[in-house]
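>> received
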Amino acid sequence: MMREELVFGPIRSRRLGSSLGINLLPRKGKLCNFDCIYCECGWNKDGRTEEKLPDAAQLEAALEAKLIACRQEGIGIDSITFSGDGEPTINPCFPEIIDIAIALRDKYFPEAKVSVLSNATMVGKEKVFEALRKVDNPILKLDAPTDNLTALINQPQGGYHVEDVVRNLERFEGDFVLQTMFLKSESFDSSSPEVLQGWMNLVRRLRPREIMVYTLDREAPAEGLEKFTAEEMELMVRPLLEEGFRIQIRG
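>> returned
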């Protein structure tokens, strides 16, 4: 489902509570450097648009208006969440926009968190990394432990190497949330021993403060995908739970 507005919601998020969404991408369409087979926004080719990306001034006006309205109407906000129709960090104004969002949060809803859902591909850019260090919840994706499996699940546009992303994530020194989608198809299975062990080894290397594991929740653009139950995923991550990792499981 496309979220057409620059600022939308708040909506009830299964992970973040009452979440006010921010879409830094085209108002109609999709723009992402991944083309994930499970993306609820559909394929990149079906969401192409000629619209320009919103800039910092547009975001500031829209976000402040929404925050004022929510406060006047007594609507609670647990998280101001950058998500939208694609990858938010590819907006060139992203670092400046994060500063604006934090300032407005502090002014109107100081108890709310600022969260960013990202595929972590832009963390190697210093200004993006510094911006993500400022937010309460940098929620960064790593769906697979190998380049080949990432190519099947996430279909990166351009060069992508798991090792490069992991090295960039190590710079957070564990102060981030790792997000991973578990699913299976005829081509792969996230629960297979070699995939699961490889992923757990990366988790042990990164030691994130929290891990979010989830599975299919909405219709996916690719056919033949299967979801896991919460009980199955708990079994999959049990070794990490026993080692003391904090894991949120969403079936």
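>> Strands lie at 7-13, 17-22, 79-82, 113-118, 137-141, 177-181, 210-214, 247-250.
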